[in-house]
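hey so i finally got around to running the thing on that chain from the lab meeting. sorry it took forever, my laptop kept dying and i had to restart like 3 times. anyway pasting the input first so we r on the same page abt which one it is
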Amino acid sequence: MSDSQTAPHQPTVLDRVLAIGQMLQHDMDRSFSDTGLSTSRTHLLWVLHHAGPSTQRSLATALQVSARNITGLVDAVEHHGYAARTAHPTDRRATLVTLTDLGRRTMQRMASEHEQLSRELVAGLAPDEADVLMRGLTHVEGVLARLIAEAANPAEVRS
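ok and heres what got predicted. didnt touch it at all, straight out
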């Protein structure tokens, strides 16, 4: 085969992961268009939904962002009515971020949609095929996390 007659590209695992990520991002952007939410703001609400009232420090740690970044995220979700800051019951220096009624309803709906989409994604697969898929995705996620950590901290990898 000459250079002008190359074989058709066979998608790699990375090609598939990138395509799935892009599809999900486009769908989230569409879903959030009139809500005042973004991926980062929704992640914050998702953490609050699962962890309950939290300090901004613990939220920054969970989201792996700076104190300045979490302040902006909390300001935004508070402005749009999804969360509120309240006094910490035992630490006068800290405030808690809690979901409002709107935030709770929104996250309950998102959790339900999350479960429904999870079921739909494996519909048509036999249970053993779904298990193999989950193990494969877990493996890819672990390898990707390790490679990203190594790239972010090359000095630690060499020592």
